[in-house]
Amino acid sequence: MKKQTAEDREPIDSNLYQQPMTDYVGFIWYWLPLLAYAGIIALLSSLSTPRIHLATLANVFLVVPSDQFTTINDKLVHITEYTILGLLTYRAIQYSWGNKLGPFSAFLTIILVAFYGVIDEIHQWFIPLRNMESMDLMADILGGLIGMSIWEWALTLPAVRLFDKQLHQTWESIKTMTATKS
User: Fold this and answer.
1) For residue 151, which of 97, 102, 85, 107 has the smallest C-alpha distance?
2) How far apart are the C-alpha atoms of 65 and 56, rounded to whole Å?
3) Domain ranges within the chain, ordered by starting residue
4) Which three-class secondary structure state does DSSP give residue 6?
5) pLDDT for residue 174
């Protein structure tokens, strides 16, 4: 058998060795809000007296009485903030891996929200005047489930579905345009 030389080999498609193009627009629209919101949760968790800080912010930016924040149940606050986190997490996972993961994306969302809740509770254990509570973690997980359900429900609305579809088409055309430039 004859030894193969460089001239005998088929040419290698150079595109196979290029790094895949990064989807900056998708990152900015789907992942950046999630990361920013997770940072806000971490910031609020690092405060020894978050209700006092929230009341101060409310007095500066909103027309809300400062004693309003002292009457809100702590578990309701956890459910609300983790509902938003669950919605943003599920939305980002659906955008990035929705078709590949299928129903596993819902499970992954709950795992990630629960993991972040555990990290948040452990973090609060080290903050003066704060403590770690298992009921807070349960409220976090419930909030994540609610947020994921809200996003699933929102996608049944024609306006949201149309907006989401148009965003995907716009990003695909942006990716195509930037791919042809390089």
Assistant:
1) 85
2) 10
3) 24-46+73-181
4) coil
5) 73
Residue 19 burial (C-beta neighbours within 10 Å; 0-12, 13-18, 19+): exposed
The CA–CA distances, whole Å, from 9 to 12, 16, 17, 18, 125 equal 9, 16, 17, 20, 63
pLDDT digits (tens, 9 = 90+) for 80-116: 999 999 999 999 998 888 778 888 999 999 999 999 9
Helical H runs in the chain?
24-26, 32-45, 50-61, 74-101, 104-125, 134-154, 158-181
The first and second tokens of residue 95, run together, are 């955008």
User: Which region, left, alpha or beta, applies to residue 152 given φ > 0 means left and ψ of -120 to 50 means alpha?
Assistant: alpha
**How far is 145 from 90, CA to CA, in rounded Å?**
10
pTM tops 0.85: no
- Tell me how far apart the alpha carbons of residues 80 and 89 are, in angstroms, rounded to a whole number: 14
Q: What is the DSSP letter of 152?
A: H
The pLDDT of residue 57 is: 65
Could you identify the residue written with the tokens 């993961």? 101
Query: What's at 37, amino acid-wise?
Result: Y
Look at the block and give the residue holding tokens 């579809």.
165
